[in-house]
Amino acid sequence: MRRKEPLYRKVNTTAHGVHHGSGPDYRSRRVKAQESPLAARMVAGKRRGLDYTPLFRFLLSRVGQPWGPTLKEAQSRLDREAPIFWIVARFPSEEKPYVRMGESSFYSGLYVDDGGLLQKVDPTLSESSLEPTCRCCTHTFNGKRFTRAYKG
Ligand SMILES: [Zn+2]
User: Fold this and answer.
1) How far apart, in whole angstroms, are the C-alpha atoms of residue 102 and residue 16?
2) How far is the CA of 16 from the centre of ligand 1 (A)?
């Protein structure tokens, strides 16, 4: 039996994309996100060097499916569970239309509906909903490049 791949990967911390800092940066819905003090505060508590992009893609691929088995599989393929809840709300008060990881990676915020299925908080958001926050990074929404231009 083949062992499933982990849902995270090690990254070179000097690689492009970490110069603005990385880690979760939860935001309310706004067309253009600004630099926030939250991003700076998160720096101290986060672990550089692990990239959870495979986890976020896995969770997005399970939207509409039962949460129980999805959570169990995610836990079995991670070094720790916290990153699951960067994107999946545990309580209604944690539900966010989108979640920002580092400077330029954005993902749909997720929650578990009354029927126990994983769902997007705002299924209308897409790679054309948000504007980039800087010129130097490639901004993505659920792994797709933003279609709107940086306006400065
Ligand atoms: Zn940048």
Assistant:
1) 11
2) 9
Cβ atoms < 10 Å from Cβ of 83: 23
* Structure tokens given for 61: 């691929």
Which two tokens mark 148? 């709107």
Report CA(138)–ligand 1 centroid distance (Å). 7
User: What are the boundaries of each domain within the chain?
Assistant: 47-152
Q: How far apart are CA 71 and CA 69, in angstroms?
A: 5
Residue ranges of E strands in 1-152 = 9-10, 24-27, 50-51, 98-101, 105-108, 110-112, 118-120, 140-141, 144-145
Q: What is the rounded distance in angstroms from the CA atom of residue 53 to the CA atom of residue 144?
A: 12
20/34 Cα distance (integer angstroms)? 13
pLDDT in tens, 84-98: 999 999 999 999 999
Q: What is the pTM of this model?
A: 0.76
Give the distance (Å) from ligand 1 centre to CA of residue 113. Answer: 35
